[in-house]
TrEMBL record:
It comes from Kocuria rhizophila (strain ATCC 9341 / DSM 348 / NBRC 103217 / DC2201). This is Nitroreductase domain-containing protein. It comes from the Bacteria. Residues 255-270 have a biased composition (Polar residues). It holds the Pfam family Nitroreductase. Coiled coil: none annotated. Residues 243-270 are annotated as: Disordered. The lineage of its organism: Bacteria, Bacillati, Actinomycetota, Actinomycetes, Micrococcales. Residues 9-225 form the Nitroreductase domain.
């Protein structure tokens, strides 16, 4: 049951971390947990780069903030992900997926109904909303004691071949192990995703980390110890709401949804 508590209570950390550096013992444990994951033919295609240097973290943070400003200002972020945005608890309760935007910062509230229209985008840009959000993102990443870059061997990561699937699946298992371990250590973790939305910005990180040609940088995560009391962020990028099993599980064939599993039986549920 203790393990199930970890599985069901882990969360993406959307807020700031404590300033304490991540201990070498905990860094080693995180990587050992990741490396214990299964992989096709025991290929272990993952590679990791641990980043504590403050100048490097500040640079990644600056790139992340600039990337957020860029994609928000161009409207590509909203166009790409609008199907996942929920603006009321009722909508979230109905769809049980996506991100809940019910506590938008005052700066964004006027755009709730026009977030995906040309006029709404133009007004946000005139008011420099993308720049404001980008700066908040920069500060969040800059406050991270540790970054971890995850890479795959290009010899295994060939998207046009089945080995590409195997290697990504293996990387996912490794990161799940690492993610669950952060819960046990009183830590948090979050995907630094915005640079990947702007390929030229992502290349800046690749170059800065001296990623060799035989490796592909797949993701960067920020990690740190979580404050004892954390407040819910203004935008809940990682809602705990989940679809009911009857919405995604089938019995025998895909014609018959699973019945009888929708009652929540997780540890601590009512």
């Amino acid at each position: 049951m203790e393990f199930l508590d970890v599985v069901f209570n882990r969360r993406t950390t959307n807020g700031p971390f404590r300033p304490d550096p991540v201990s070498p013992e905990h860094q080693q444990l995180l990587i050992r947990a990741a490396a214990a994951a299964p992989s096709q033919f025991n290929s272990q295609p993952w590679r990791f780069v641990l980043i504590e240097d403050r100048e490097t973290i500040e640079t990644v943070a600056r790139i992340s903030g600039e990337s957020m400003t860029e994609v928000m200002g161009a409207g590509t972020f909203f166009d790409r992900y609008k199907k996942y945005f929920r603006f009321s608890q009722k909508e979230m309760d109905t769809l049980r997926s996506g991100m809940l935007f019910d506590k938008l910062p005052a700066l964004l509230r006027p755009f709730t109904s026009r977030a995906f229209t040309p006029s709404g985008q133009a007004l946000m840009n005139r008011l420099r909303v993308p720049q404001t959000l980008g700066e908040e993102n920069r500060k969040l990443v800059a406050g991270s004691p540790l970054l971890i870059g995850v890479m795959l061997e290009r010899g295994e990561y060939r998207p046009e071949e089945l080995s590409g699937f195997y290697s990504v699946f293996s990387m996912g298992a490794a990161m799940e192990n690492l993610w669950l371990t952060t819960v046990e250590l009183g830590m948090g973790i979050q995907f630094v995703s915005f640079p990947m939305e702007a390929p030229h910005q992502w290349q800046r990180i690749v170059d800065m980390l001296h990623v060799p040609d035989e490796l592909e940088l797949m993701a960067v995560y920020r990690l740190g110890y979580v404050p004892e009391r954390t407040h819910r962020p203004a935008i809940d990028w990682s809602s705990r709401e989940r679809k009911r099993p009857s919405q995604y599980v089938f019995r025998e064939t895909c014609d018959t949804p699973q019945q009888g599993w929708d009652q929540d039986t997780r540890p601590g549920s009512a």
